[in-house]
Amino acid sequence: MVAKRKKSKKVARGSVPAPLRKRRASTHSTPIAITIAGSDSSGGAGIEADLKTFSALGVYGAAVITAVTAQNSHGVFGVHDVPAKFITAQIDAVFTDLDVGAVKIGMLPDSAAISVVAEALDRYRPRNVVLDPVMAASSGERLMRADISRLRSLLSRVRLVTPNLAEAAALVDGPLACDDGEMRAQAEKLLAQGAVAVLIKGGHRSGAESVDFLVERGRCLRLAAPRVATKNTHGTGCTSSSAIAAGLAKGLPLEAAARQAKAYVSAALAAADRLVVGSGRGPLHHFHAWW
């Protein structure tokens, strides 16, 4: 007599099978961060920069790809969006298996991508989410086609948003900040829009120092480092936000994670000219401490 096979139980999308829940509860030794972003074929920014940063800072990196770009050190030549349903499939696959300590969100090419990521954040409630509101490549090509209001809808769902000067101006519908006071004022406006914390980055300003501000309700921290003279700055914003996510994944408080990221990016910029990658604006040296 042949025994009947038991029917496997279906698992609802977004739910965690019991064996995986048990494994999560008993295993906490490996810090894990996930990047939800676009792929850079030249390896200097996007998913590739994020995974390098996670590895350099001692964190296991997983990835959800939202778009594939054709780009190099001179610019972006094409963008292919990943369908929203497949972005969801990637997120569900990772979150139902890995104990994700932090999430970095980068390029979200359209409204559909923003919507499914927002739904996933509501579904899984990750404790540490860093949003890098990527709108354009550093070479100028537009990478986000959604209305800016759709991106604003993510502010209240994340622990930290990390805009550069142009991104902050777009999010608050204002002019480009020209000094410390204007940077802080725009960060405060983002808090009023629902952000929990804001790291507004001043790397595109001039001066001897590169100054960022970490702003929370009732608290403002000035983070400064000597400005590095190099043209090889491709992927700086991606690296900064993923470095903060790596720190949070390891259990660092937000301030400590931001300080670690500032130091790491400054060192990677200082070592960037040791690399010979492309004939345009090259990448940071993510592994400067090793080779």
User: What's the CATH architecture?
Assistant: 3-Layer(aba) Sandwich
If helices are DSSP runs of H or I spanning 4 or more residues, what is the number of helices? 9
Text of the CATH class:
Alpha Beta
Biggest beta sheet summary: 6 strands, mixed
Average pLDDT confidence is: 90
Order of helices and strands: HEHEEHEHEHEHHEEEHH
Spatial arrangement of strands, main beta sheet: 3-2-1-4-5-6
Question: How many structural domains does the protein architecture include?
Answer: 1
Relevant CATH superfamily: Ribokinase
Helix content: 25-40%
Uncertain runs: 1-27
Find the count of extended strands (DSSP E, 2+ residues). 9
Estimate the strand proportion. Answer: 15-25%
Question: What name does CATH use for the topology?
Answer: UDP-N-acetylmuramoyl-L-alanine:D-glutamate ligase
Describe the structure.
The chain is an alpha/beta fold. The protein has a single domain, classed as Ribokinase (UDP-N-acetylmuramoyl-L-alanine:D-glutamate ligase). The protein contains nine helices and nine strands. It has helices spanning 18-26, 46-56, 84-95, 111-124, 148-152, 165-172, 180-192, 236-249, 254-270; strands at residues 32-40, 60-72, 75-81, 102-105, 129-131, 160-161, 197-201, 209-216, 219-226. The protein has a six-stranded mixed sheet with strand order 3-2-1-4-5-6. The chain has a three-stranded antiparallel sheet with strand order 7-8-9, with helices on both faces. A hairpin with a 7-residue loop joins strand 7 (197-201) and strand 8 (209-216). Helix 3 (84-95) runs parallel beside helix 4 (111-124) and helix 8 packs across helix 9.
